[in-house]
Amino acid sequence: MDLLQIKRALQHLMRLLAEKEYALMYAEDARKRITADELQMAIEEYGGNVTLPPEEAYENMYIYTHENTENECTVEMYVWINQEQSDLTLSCDLAVDEKRFQYAINGIYVL
Predict the structure, then answer these.
(1) Domains of the chain, first to last
(2) Residues of the chain where predicted confidence (pLDDT) is lower than 50
(3) Taking the complete model, does pTM exceed 0.85, yes or no?
């Protein structure tokens, strides 16, 4: 897995969360397990405003590789709320190659 591509994918997802682009997140989601309304509800129930994480936060992503494939993984990362790391976590599956990525959101939950 290309760590830079994983980081770019997570930056994209965090930007969409911060901009409250839940419908776009759902539209881009490869598996559509979580609806736009469910994404929005998870954020609103937690409270506060999603903000973009600092660059160093991407060093703390949890990456779980999948067996039998070199370009797929599951990634978990803390969501930043009001400029602080929260215990709210975004979990998604990623398929990455050198040109693009696809994601499937598994959930947003408190660890």
Answers:
(1) 3-110 (3.10.450)
(2) none
(3) yes
